[in-house]
Amino acid sequence: MLTITPLTPHIGAIIDGVALASCSDDDFAQIYQAFLNDKVVFFRDQYLSPDEQLALARRFGELEAPHPFFPHVDGFPQVSVIETTPGNPPGKSYWHTDMTWQKAPPKCSVLCAQHLPDEGGDTIWTSMEAVYQSLPNAMKQSLQGLTATHAVHGFAGSRFDKTNAKGESKVAQIAGKMNGVQHPLVVRHPETDHPSLYINEQFCQYIDNLDLECVEINALSEKNGKDGDNLLSSLFSLSREEAFQVRFTWEAGSVAIWDNRCTQHFAVTDYGDKPRKLHRVVVKGEKPAAMPTLDV
């Protein structure tokens, strides 16, 4: 029997009693509702093959194209491999929402653990709906209409960045062909209508055309001196507060599925170069829409 157990007041649920590779339509409907309600759902002992992982992801929507930087499982270009091997430790980790450098960032991701170190390597998710709701009402109103520019620069110099014979960065070459994209600071969830703060420190470069008229915005921005940069920095800091988070300890066969439209996540890189391997499949989303009028 399928059971859903919420893990925190704001985000995360563990789902037991279901085999994801063969779950019924009724079970999937419950999983999907938990996905919307709890924003990230976790499963144990699934051991999905690449074909099964792709089939599961397709139940959430159309799949994204292969990732431009991540390696993939042989024969399965849409199954990205996130792997640490001896001598190849993970680089610096950042809080992020996946692929916000796209005009239409992903709806969700399905991440399946293959093997893990004996200790460490957790992932943390945060609810950006809860972060938004924690803001003073005057600030919520002042953030309406603001946008931020997101770009692919966050991969530069990472272990996923490659250089050619001339020493040119693959990320830099791709970034040079892609303009930054603007997304609203406050977005409307396309299925729940809930507002979220839509920023992340890996891909969000700066706030566009900031006019500091709100007392709360000014108070945040004056902490360090430069208007937009410090507002963004302060919002990043707020997004890292543990009250809005859930932390998941992986095991082989674990699966996490998260709503990329209202969350950020962070990979804890506390395991050196001990072997760790996960497979990721990403589902297409739509262009984030601003909340035209917020009832605050």
UniProtKB/TrEMBL annotation:
Residues 4-281 form the TauD/TfdA-like domain. The keyword Nucleus does not apply. The keyword Oxidoreductase applies. Keywords: Dioxygenase, Iron, Metal-binding, Oxidoreductase. It holds the Pfam family TauD. One of its GO terms (molecular function) is dioxygenase activity. Coiled coil: none annotated. Belongs to the TfdA dioxygenase family. This is TauD/TfdA family dioxygenase.
